[in-house]
Specification:
The complex is a heterodimer of chains A (about 110) and B (about 110).
Chain A lengths: L4 E3 L2 E4 L5 E6 L6 E7 L6 E7 L2 E5 L6 E5 L5 E5 L8 E8 L8 E2 L3 E5 L1
Parallel strand pairs in A: 2-11
Antiparallel strand pairs in A: 1-3, 3-8, 4-5, 4-9, 5-6, 7-8, 9-10, 9-11
Chain B lengths: L3 E3 L3 E5 L4 E7 L6 E7 L6 E7 L4 E3 L3 E6 L4 E6 L8 E8 L6 E3 L3 E6 L1
Parallel strand pairs in B: 2-11
Antiparallel strand pairs in B: 1-3, 3-8, 4-5, 4-9, 6-7, 7-8, 9-10, 9-11
Classes of the chains: A mainly beta (about 110), B mainly beta (about 110).
Amino acid sequence: DAGVTQSPTHLIKTRGQQVTLRCSPISGHKSVSWYQQVLGQGPQFIFQYYEKEERGRGNFPDRFSARQFPNYSSELNVNALLLGDSALYLCASSFGQGGTEAFFGQGTRLTVV
Amino acid sequence: GESVGLHLPTLSVQEGDNSIINCAYSNSASDYFIWYKQESGKGPQFIIDIRSNMDKRQGQRVTVLLNKTVKHLSLQIAATQPGDSAVYFCAGPTGGYNKLIFGAGTRLAVHP
């Protein structure tokens, strides 16, 4: 069975540009969460989507946005990239909104230059 | 505010020894904790979880202990192997089990 898949695995962007990251949850999972992991730190919660609706948002600026599609896949968008946005972006999926184990993908390594 | 932190940034052990990784939390209302293992270049991998109505839970070679009195949990790895080398995170929920607060992580280095 396929786990959580994220694309691309790596990318390099220039300051001021926009980026879209993609996530496909485990089949049957309806919840997707996004996390940012800066080098040497633990993941920081950005968004949770369940049944295509935003159910939670972390302390991130409005430059960060996300959406979930009818097939439960999700995109994370970041506008006006800053150097500090360089990080590993992780997607986690679970069956329900809460009370169930979250499975993480391999992440997308974003480098802003 | 809520926080989940780890006592040591790195831990070095000999292969075959037992490892203990510690974690402290501040939110008394937390009722669920998870340990994740993250290898280089990979996403966090679920190891074991524990709910607040338990003091101890055992898995394969791993045991998690929860002390609610001092808001502390630990991960014990028996007979540590080179494949256990990774960064270990404790995490707790905030408002829902998919909204996790992670600590900074402890790097476990296993030496032959």
